[in-house]
Design brief:
Blueprint (H helix, E strand, L loop, with lengths): L3 E5 L4 H17 L2 E8 L8 H25 L3 E8 L2 H9 L4 E5 L7 H12 L4 E4 L10 E4 L5 H16 L3 E7 L13 H25 L5 E7 L2 H8 L5 E5 L13 H8 L5 E4 L1
Parallel strand pairs: 1-2, 1-4, 2-3, 4-5, 6-7, 6-9, 7-8, 9-10
Antiparallel strand pairs: 5-10
Helix pairs in contact: 3-4, 7-8
Length: 276
């Protein structure tokens, strides 16, 4: 079965970057590309149905030109235009896809950033959030790991992307001592040393498995003390892609990201994949 990549299409610059990113991935892997545009904001006012219909026709015409260009370059592609709640509809559509790609902004910069966070939290498949970035050269795939089952899918995804891009994979992990209230004093050296050793051991096991599965892939590590989201964010400043894991949950809890993935998206500084 051919993999399907859904791209949420809007008029934002970040959305155009998302389409470029998804199109290249579709070419590289032979995936099917579905452009998905949602006209939101309708409340059922008198005369609104005609307006939505006209807007839908305009959007469909624009997407038709885009699909024609990409089809001519060999991409298997279709376009869909609908109306309703963009977040809910993209989450629903993600159940039939292997990857969902959207444009995104940090949450402090308007509703699109908030929508991206909600979509990444609720989607049924991995979500790639593509910000509007400058033209500076980027290199490497960063993956955050913590030794949990949650990060296993992120590692697999990141290694595959690094291999596709022919770029190095950087396995990142961080450790912090237990937070204590008041004037606790100095942590015992043996405790800090053991924390660092446990973290490094988890990373070493990941690297060993990745190298066995991808013998031609360059793999390096970045292990240090600090807040994991900040360490991953700093490592991703010049990266082609950052990959983080999210909790595999069901029901309402599925719409909650973990603290690390939430913070990474909130301070979006690279193309970022959230994998559950």
């Amino acid at each position: 079965m051919v993999d399907t990549i859904i791209v949420g299409v809007t008029d934002a610059a970040a959305s155009r970057r998302a389409l470029d990113w998804a199109s290249q991935r579709a070419r590289d892997l032979g995936s099917r590309l579905v452009l998905f545009s949602v006209i939101g904001g309708a409340v059922g006012a008198v005369g609104e149905e005609e307006i939505v219909s006209r807007v839908a026709d305009t959007v469909a015409d624009r997407l038709q030109a885009v699909t024609a260009d990409l089809a001519a370059s060999g991409v298997d592609i279709e376009a869909r235009v609908t109306s309703g709640d963009p977040v809910a509809l993209l989450i629903e559509a993600s159940a039939q896809a292997q990857l969902l790609v959207i444009g995104g902004e940090p949450r402090g910069r308007g509703r699109r950033g908030q929508h991206g966070h909600r979509i990444a939290a609720g989607a049924h498949c991995p979500v790639v959030v593509v910000p509007e970035l400058g033209t500076a050269e980027r290199l490497g795939v960063i993956v955050g790991v913590d030794g949990s089952e949650t990060s296993n899918a992120a590692i697999t995804f990141a290694a595959g992307e690094a291999e596709r891009l022919a770029e190095p994979l950087v396995v990142v992990s961080a450790w912090l001592p237990v937070a204590v209230p008041g004037d606790f004093g100095v942590y015992p050296d043996v405790y800090l040393t053991d924390l660092e050793g446990i973290t490094q051991g988890n990373v070493d096991r990941v690297v060993e498995a990745v190298r066995a599965a991808h013998p031609g892939l360059e793999v390096t590590t970045n292990v240090g003390e600090g807040d994991p989201a900040l360490v991953i964010g700093d490592a991703g400043e010049s990266a082609s892609l950052v990959v983080v894991g999210s909790h595999g949950r069901s029901g309402f809890a599925r719409f909650l990201l973990g603290s690390v993935s939430e913070e990474v998206l909130a301070h979006l500084n690279a193309v970022t994949a959230v994998v559950r």
